UniProtKB/TrEMBL annotation:
SUPFAM superfamilies: OsmC-like (SSF82784). It comes from Exilibacterium tricleocarpae. InterPro entries: KH_dom-like_a/b (IPR015946), OsmC/Ohr_fam (IPR003718), OsmC/Ohrsf (IPR036102). It comes from the Bacteria. It holds the Pfam family OsmC. Gene3D superfamilies: 2.20.25.10, 3.30.300.20. This is OsmC family protein.
Length: 139
């Protein structure tokens, strides 16, 4: 896997993935930015959410669950001072569908957290406390 990050100006950077997709990252005005993109640590949080949601949906599709929507809300806490790494992150999955089986959703979330989500496993190995919950919504 490869990526490049190029400085644009101020606190703005353009990241490009090895697959050719780009994202703008920028800082707040008090750090020389113009608030024109996500912060780098927000990218880490979004990456975790995307990784976990990808796993959960993949597992639920294989279990033939009729999912019409899947969202994951992430809440994170960071350490005071510099550096300020994440200390805690909670992922709450809201899975909408028809006739969803709670056991299947619970299993998908657990498998993502303990076996499949590389981002989650990496962050936990680095000392981040990660918790998960889920809610089922009938479509």
């Amino acid at each position: 896997m490869q990526a490049t990050v190029k400085w644009v100006d101020g606190a703005m950077f353009l990241g490009e993935s090895g697959s050719g997709h780009s994202v703008v990252m920028d800082g707040p005005a008090d750090h020389g930015g113009r608030n024109m993109g996500v912060r780098p640590m927000e990218m880490v949080l979004l990456g975790l959410g995307g990784c976990a949601a990808f796993d959960v949906m993949s597992i639920l599709r294989k279990a033939r669950q009729a999912v019409s929507d899947c969202r994951v809300a992430l809440e994170a806490e960071r350490a005071e001072g510099v550096p300020s790494p994440f200390t805690r992150i909670h992922l709450k999955f809201v899975v909408t569908g028809t006739g969803l089986k709670e056991t299947q959703v619970k299993r998908a979330v657990e498998l993502s957290a303990t076996k499949y989500c590389s981002a989650s496993i990496m962050l936990e190995a680095g000392g981040v406390e990660i918790s998960h919950s889920y809610e089922l919504v009938e479509a």
